[in-house]
Design goal:
Number of domains: 1
CATH class: Alpha Beta
CATH superfamily: NADP-dependent oxidoreductase domain
Largest sheet: 8 strands, parallel
InterPro entries: AKR, NAD(P)_OxRdtase_dom_sf, NADP_OxRdtase_dom
Shape: globular
Strand order of the largest sheet: 6-7-8-11-12-13-14-17
Protein name: Aldo/keto reductase
Number of helices: 12
CATH topology: TIM Barrel
Strand content: 15-25%
Radius of gyration: 20 Å
């Protein structure tokens, strides 16, 4: 396998991951009154440009990335994907019309990768996403869902997710990462989605965050490695799905799975962001070595990288500590010095790593979706990343555009 330079100038592998410039509808920015210079969402792969309004090098992210799974099938990700947890009435209730308007806005803006899971509203998000996508041409988008949770009907007062998911079906979660459990979970997802094809299936939440302890996580991981991953591999080899992997909140368990299996993809929530880069220690280099792709969820670390270090800001699903608030304030100061919004830098940063195929922030409303698109369009000076490094706010080994020899 030949080692080459990728779009961002960091070493990559000439193999399964590709980038190319997009040419779909949606390349023009909606008129919203902003006077901030922006690049098209479907932009070229050029690393720098000369612009009368921008006198220094600026980031140019590819609009789409091609990934070839071990099944031999080529998957075309949009750099900006759609995370559907909010459509499962996470933290607030949405009606079906509100959810559909947000999905329509995503489609109109050129988003073509949609991720969902049984957990999100206990089937509600899958139902809403599936209802919308059934009206689109099937080859025009990628769809992923997750396995490992079986949903059982129960009394309303006994349901899971009270206080977190609102106005959702009354369901009790049964974790099952065995061979049969994965098969049953996926069959139920096919029915809720109303789909004939699911492109990517991910084992969901075998991490400490979900199961409460390292011991419990290790037990669930072993259950998956002994059974569930065989089910996913069989589904891939039979052509039922194109790619397989896991979706978790921690890079450590992702590394365990990467070392012990031949999965294709990892959906990693919040662990490679402008605020956190520990996954560079060993996990992301391992993904590069094994030609495994990474989808980044939670790019705002539960909110603080979108809202800034305001009182009550959330980090990793809870109130941010004083140390986190201080660090984010320092990052925001560097962004402000370059006239770049913190959220814009946060959304684009993960995509500069060559293993990353897409970033999938959530959106509740069309306005939030448009904000995500605009964050992807914002020109970011290469000097911003350099200044973050100089201030000790960004790891020296984090791939950034300034590494490229133009």
């Amino acid at each position: 396998m030949t080692r080459t330079a990728n779009t961002y100038g960091s070493p990559s592998y000439e193999g399964r991951l590709r980038v190319h410039e997009g040419d779909d509808a949606g390349s023009k920015r909606p008129e919203n009154g902003s006077d901030r210079a922006r690049a098209p969402f479907y932009s070229t792969n050029a690393l720098t440009r000369k612009d009368p309004a921008v006198s220094h090098a600026i980031t140019r992210l590819p609009s789409r990335r091609h990934f070839k799974s071990r099944s031999g099938r080529s998957l075309q990700f949009t750099s900006l994907g759609f995370g559907s947890a909010p459509l499962g009435n996470l933290y607030r209730a949405l009606n079906n019309e509100q959810a559909r308007l947000t999905l329509e806005a995503a489609w109109q803006h050129g988003v073509r990768y949609y991720d969902t899971a049984p957990l999100y509203g206990y089937g509600l998000a899958e139902t809403r996403v599936g209802s919308f996508l059934r009206e689109q041409q099937r080859d025009d988008y990628l769809l992923s869902t997750k396995v490992g949770r079986l949903l059982k009907r129960c009394a309303p007062e006994q349901r899971d997710g009270i206080g977190k998911f609102f106005e959702v079906p009354s369901r009790e979660v049964i974790y099952d990462y065995s061979y049969d459990g994965v098969m049953r979970s996926l069959e139920a997802s096919f029915e809720r989605l109303g789909a004939d094809r699911i492109d990517i299936v991910l084992c969901h939440d075998i991490d400490i965050f979900t199961h409460g302890s390292a011991e419990a996580s290790a037990q669930r991981t072993r259950e998956f490695l002994d059974g569930g991953v065989r089910a996913l591999s069989d589904l891939r080899s039979q052509g039922v799905v194109a790619a397989i992997g896991i979706g978790v909140n921690e890079w450590q368990v992702s590394e365990t799975v990467a070392r012990n299996t031949d999965v294709d993809l990892f959906l990693l929530a919040g662990r490679y962001t402008l605020l956190e880069q520990e996954s560079l220690d060993s996990f992301l280099p391992l993904c590069m070595k094994k030609d495994m792709g990474v989808i980044i969820g939670g790019p705002f670390n539960s909110g603080i990288l979108a809202t800034g270090p305001k009182p009550g800001a959330y980090f990793n699903y809870g109130p941010a500590s004083p140390d986190i608030l201080k660090r984010v304030a320092a990052i925001e100061a560097v962004c402000r010095a370059h006239q770049v919004a913190l959220r814009d830098a946060a959304l684009q940063f993960p995509l500069m790593h060559p293993a990353v195929v897409s970033v999938i922030p959530g959106a509740i409303t069309p306005a939030e979706l448009q904000g995500n698109v605009e964050s992807m369009q914002t020109p970011i000076p290469a000097q911003l990343w350099s200044d973050l490094r100089t201030e000790g706010l960004l790891r020296p080994d984090a791939p950034v555009v300034e590494n490229m020899q133009v």
